[in-house]
Amino acid sequence: MMEAFLSSTLAVAIAEIGDKTQLLALFLVTKYGRPYVISFGVLLSTLLNHALSAWVGAWLGDKIPAELIPWIISASFVAVAIWLLVPDKEDDDLSKFSQYGPLVATCVLFFLAEIGDKTQIATVILAAQYQTQVAWVIAGTTFGMLIANVPVIFAGKWLMQRIPLKLAHRCAFVLFLLLAFATIAKAYLG
Known about the structure:
globular, mainly alpha
């Protein structure tokens, strides 16, 4: 259970560095200046998005033959690793939800930003890997998302000037490659 939680937390926290949702968090706190409300919105939207993603991952894990799961999960980790090297683009239509206030705007925008995002894909992969510990995967990926975004919400501009994004993306790339290797090693070495 701790392995599922810690793997999920670490994978998402590192993958999230420099992600578009960090830029979204910075945008929202700059617009509203309500860091606690925005943090709560991130929590709510992430819980919902990652719970749905984990459910899909666990469902897929039940449908795929057991001997293929480690290979599919490992290949997925490699794909996410490569995806991490591609820079995110900012969305231009963020302001259409801003009229609803900081909590609603944060919930809606974060939920939408996570659809198809690398952290959502990572949640699906992790839930497929830890099918019997889906709640721990959801808790870990949500905690990882908060670890990555809450500091941006409270100290955004200062942090963004000090963290080299290329280095963060390269570290996340290596982490996901290590997760791919560990998945195969665990499946065949015990």
